[in-house]
Design a protein that fits this description.
The protein is an alpha+beta fold. The chain has 14 helices and 14 strands. The chain has 2 domains: 195 residues, no CATH class; 205 residues, no CATH class. A 5-stranded antiparallel β-sheet has the order 3-4-5-10-6. Strands 7-8-9 form a 3-stranded antiparallel β-sheet, with no helix packed on it. The protein starts with a helix and ends in a 5-residue tail after the last helix. GO terms for molecular function: ATP binding; metal ion binding; phosphotransferase activity, alcohol group as acceptor. Keywords: ATP-binding, Disulfide bond, Glycoprotein, Golgi apparatus, Manganese, Metal-binding, Nucleotide-binding.
């Protein structure tokens, strides 16, 4: 019996060793396979994107929203929309032609001097491998860099990315089609990169903020900020809610990126919408124990979670799939703060965030004169940069701009980052004129000029911004049309339009208000012989702007 037991034990030991060696060989052979998804062939013309839509499960045709009883594919995603009728297809073709013509317009292709070496935010520095990540084989050649790294290396003193950025298509498509499935145990972690998919190494809840946000990390060191769908796209913000109690909307983040690009700012990081599987792509990959404890099944069988945050993180305000599929926005994260520190600035026109108190700018008529005497608004381009942000916020009805950020490397001589736009596009039936208070007050303060309350050297709005706004108000480049066309490229467009028609109509109405406000300012100042002071001629001074003094 002892000999027989010894023989059995030895046999089991040899079998166990053999299986471990076999598993190790398979893991090693798989580990060195690249995890980047092979992207679809590059689209040549913008119009071609009207006929295709990049999604998490491939490339599908663009079509109308599915009916309430629309069928779903085996993975639970809504099926392809029925083909567009001839009239709507022709309208979309027309809008896409307008968008293509807009981006080819000279105002969007102003020649600029080469970027000085010191005006790049980052430089390549190859580091060693970390646990859970693939071996880095990058060098100074951009061909070896993943799209997110090319985006980081393209950030300069004056913009996040250039107008004709060849990397933008690859970056947004990778966000749209990347697979986040990774449920392997540690010994088999290398097997997470199956096929050509890019899997998540980890998912955690982002610390800080008032509402639920997630951060996904990937084997090639890329990261994305995820904001889940909280309410239906057609739902308007309740009029009884204060601005600081509003939900953050995933489609608002997507729309803000497209609007910022159409305005020619390029100060919002790229954002893409997609459907995610709450179980496979969030619950199974999270390394955040606090987040993992908040998952539950609703009474109707939907998978829900709520995380931990200041507002709306409870079972009463849970984020739920249908039953597991969830719409979300994925935004490319900016370089880590250890590589590129950012400074947070309190907005001079910040709201009180109180139900009873008013902010200082709401009670002082000459408030702008005080701001203009205060650094950094008393010199450089900071004030006109701020006015650009004010115009963006008014167009998308964002009342939540309490702070903004800049990259510390460039000191005060740089652009403003337009981050955190989730509380935009809440109401289409009502405009919020108080958002334009900075533009109104800094114009009206000319009446106090004889008391030296306003500086005659500080203009209110960029010439390039003013001309683009006028361009977008013309029928051949109408803002609502080019916005509709731009949003049709997003993967979530196959589920439903990201902005409803009333929201698009509101953009045209608000643009008209901005133009009337600036024109009224010019007329007021013309009476005092200072009409030219309204416009900051950045086109003529472009060379000086790109060569910062001091």
């Amino acid at each position: 019996m002892r000999r027989r037991s010894r023989t059995i034990c030895l046999s089991l030991a040899f079998i166990t060793i053999f299986l471990h060696l076999f598993l190790a060989l398979v893991s090693l052979s798989t580990y060195h396979q690249p995890c980047d998804h092979s992207l679809p062939p590059k689209t040549t013309f913008v119009r071609d994107l009207a006929r295709t839509n990049h999604t998490a499960v491939g490339i599908r045709d663009v079509a109308e929203p599915p009916a309430g009883n629309a069928k779903k594919d085996p993975e639970g995603h809504p099926s392809v929309w029925p083909p567009l009728d001839a009239k709507r297809a022709e309208s979309l073709e027309s809008d896409l032609s307008k968008l293509e013509a807009l981006f080819d317009h000279p105002l969007y292709n102003v020649p600029s001097p080469p970027v000085p070496e010191d005006d790049w935010l980052l430089k390549v520095k190859v580091s060693s491998r970390q646990d859970g990540y693939e071996d880095i084989q990058w060098n100074r050649s951009t061909d070896s860099h993943p799209p997110w790294l090319r985006f980081h290396l393209g950030i300069s003193r004056w913009q996040l990315y250039p107008h004709h950025d060849p990397n933008m298509e690859a970056l947004t498509q990778q966000l749209a089609i990347m697979a986040l499935l990774c449920t392997c145990v540690s010994v088999c972690r290398a097997l997470c990169c199956y096929g050509n998919a890019l899997c998540a190494v980890s998912l955690v809840q982002k610390s800080g903020g008032t509402q639920l946000k997630l951060v996904m990390s990937f084997p090639n060191y890329g990261r994305a900020m995820v904001k889940p769908m909280r309410q239906e796209r057609d739902d308007e913000t309740n009029y009884n809610l204060y601005y600081f109690s509003d939900f953050e909307r995933h489609n608002a983040e997507i729309a803000a990126f497209h609007l910022d690009r159409i305005l020619g700012y390029r100060r919002v990081p790229p954002v893409v919408g997609r459907l995610v599987d709450v179980v496979k792509e969030i619950k199974d990959v999270t390394t955040d124990r606090k987040l993992a404890r908040t998952f539950f099944n609703s009474p109707v069988g939907n998978v829900c979670f709520y995380g931990q945050c200041s507002y709306y993180c409870s079972t009463e305000h849970a984020v739920c799939g249908r039953p597991r599929n969830l719409e979300a926005s994925l935004a490319v994260m900016l370089p880590d703060l250890s590589l590129a520190t950012r400074r947070s600035w309190r907005s001079p026109w910040r709201r009180s965030y109180s139900r009873s108190k008013l902010a200082k700018w709401e009670t002082e008529a000459d408030y702008c004169s005080t701001v203009k005497k205060t650094s950094p608004y008393n010199k450089g381009t900071r004030l006109v940069d701020f006015m650009d942000m004010v115009i963006l916020d008014f167009l998308m009805s964002n009342m939540d701009r309490h702070h903004y950020e800049t990259f510390e490397k460039f000191n005060n001589n740089t652009f403003l980052l337009h981050l955190d736009n989730g509380r935009s596009f809440g109401r289409h039936s009502k405009d919020e004129p108080s958002i334009l208070a900075p533009l109104e007050q800094c114009c009206s303060c000319i009446h106090f000029k004889k008391w030296n309350l306003c500086s005659s050297e500080l203009e209110r709005i960029r010439l390039s911004t003013w001309l683009r706004l006028q361009l977008l108000s013309s029928p051949q480049y109408r803002l609502s049309d080019v916005m509709r066309a731009s949003l049709s490229h997003d993967p979530l467009h196959r589920v439903a339009p990201l902005l409803s028609e009333p929201h698009l109509t509101a953009l045209d109405r608000r643009l008209k208000t901005v133009l009337e406000t600036v024109s009224r300012c010019q007329k007021h100042q013309s009476k005092d012989g200072g009409g030219d002071e309204v416009i900051f001629d950045d086109l003529a001074r472009l060379k000086d702007i790109f060569t910062p003094a001091g």
